[in-house]
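ok here's the first one, seq then struct tokens
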Amino acid sequence: MDTSSENLFLLELLEDTRATKVRNKEELAVEAKAVAKYLRISPRKLKPVCDLVRGKDAKEAVAILKFTPRKSAGLILKVLESAMANAENNHDMDVESLYVAEVYANQGPRMRRYKAGSRGMANPRLIRTSHIGVVVY
């Protein structure tokens, strides 16, 4: 799959969800969310990069992800930028003051493939997929 069709595929997978209201101790905060589903990378490879940006300012998180040399950093960056755009366009939030509240990489469905093994047997391979979610406020 070439990069342009891969980017188009990833953009189609990004799900924009409505803002949900969360009760803080005294105030009502609006949060913006973005989710990418069925990405063909295992959650085990995504989780260390998620830990890098969780709890950071959005601009700082973007800078960290841009200079992290891993495939998972690029995928998380796309979802983070989508969440920031949702916050700005759908909820009239200030992009400069956004905070990355949650970043998670959950397990998606596993595809079972088989590879030829010794003595005429078939050895199963699990192709793991992930769901990435980012919540900013």
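and now the second one, same deal
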Amino acid sequence: MNLKNGLSAIFIFVTLNQSFSFASSSNYQAIHANLLISGDLVINKPLVITKNSEIIWVGEEKKAPVLHKNTKHHFLDNSTILPGLIDTHAHLLSEWKTSAGDIWENLYINSTQSEERGLEIGKSLSKEMIYSGFTTARVLGNSGNNVDLRLRKLIDTNQVDGPRLIAAGKALCPPGGQFPRITDEYSAVIKNDYYEVNSPENAKQAVLELVASGVDVIKIIVDNKIENEASPRVLSLDTIKMIVSTARENNLKVAAHAEYEIGMRVAIEGGVDSIEHANDYNESMIPLLLEKKTYLVPTYSTGEFYAARNGKPEKIPEYNEFVAKEMRMFNKALKAGVNVVLGSDAMYSLKSGDRGDNSALMFQAAALGGIDPLDIIKMGTIHAAKLLGLPNVGSINVGNIADIIAVDGNPIEDIKVLSKVSFVMKEGRVIKSSKSK
């Protein structure tokens, strides 16, 4: 049998006494746990065997093959093992602070920080993410002059511990970027984070420049509300179609920031792969979403996070009810067959937790909307991997990349368990563990 990526299998299945033919130079590991959850697969007392960066066996421990004598064992007896988590909407070069002022002041600071400062922030936040179980993250803008590409290289070469990055570089946007008003001060820094586009022709040129720089995905700002304007500025349908077709020609997907219904509809019609935030989503959009097979990426956190960010602990119940109301709508979309995955959009650093902790709150936010825990897990693993175009991650299957985490407890019973990560393996390399030998 052949494994993915063209690698030849080096093991033989035998019906009763299963065994492998081992290569002495390879690195074999065995992960023992109480429970395995991967997609729709749930296994009690599982064993997962990896060879170098690949998964080569998955099943009940009692049915396991004979293991190589030098296999390294990880005994996670009271834990649940899952595929590595995926944040489909991350900002790992942005470290906003409540003390710096409002969102616009933080955005300005973010856009004017030096590239080296951004890279240092990225190194730190990447470590926080991987230690919280996120083995993949799609970084969607606010990364300075494509500094996310430099961070990606450091992670890929194991110079920095962090999730596998799907990097967007600069975002394409209507005039004004994401700032609330067009001033000389803001206009001077827009070029650090954005390509301002106002026609299909210069949008195509911007995409081609991003392709040349080596991005993994194209991020566009479809709509932005300028202060005192009655309606948001929106990229034209022709411009979006040009962006999408140019991206497709270069095997890239398009993620569209769209908060307003007018922006969401034009983005979906234009053929983008995902709608980020989707704050104005309503059920009337379901037929169009199904027709175009567009993903929705809600980016909500919990009331506790918003209360800490805003300094209003008394409003936790109010914030939680708002999140619950929004996520109930996305739950209906999910049940109708719409593709829905989760993104954190985490940008603030709070005393209540690091970036990984805060990003993981997106799972609890989904639970507030009544979404089934197994669906929540899939939204943050296998379904997210499909959106990102990564067929070899997001599930614990033979031939897949060995991105595996363990949490203390059972997330089907309590989704908060996803914030209690005790073991992290990325591409077969153990990054966090306390129970190995």
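notes on #2: The chain is about 35% helix and 25% strand. Confidence is low (pLDDT under 50) at residues 1-19.
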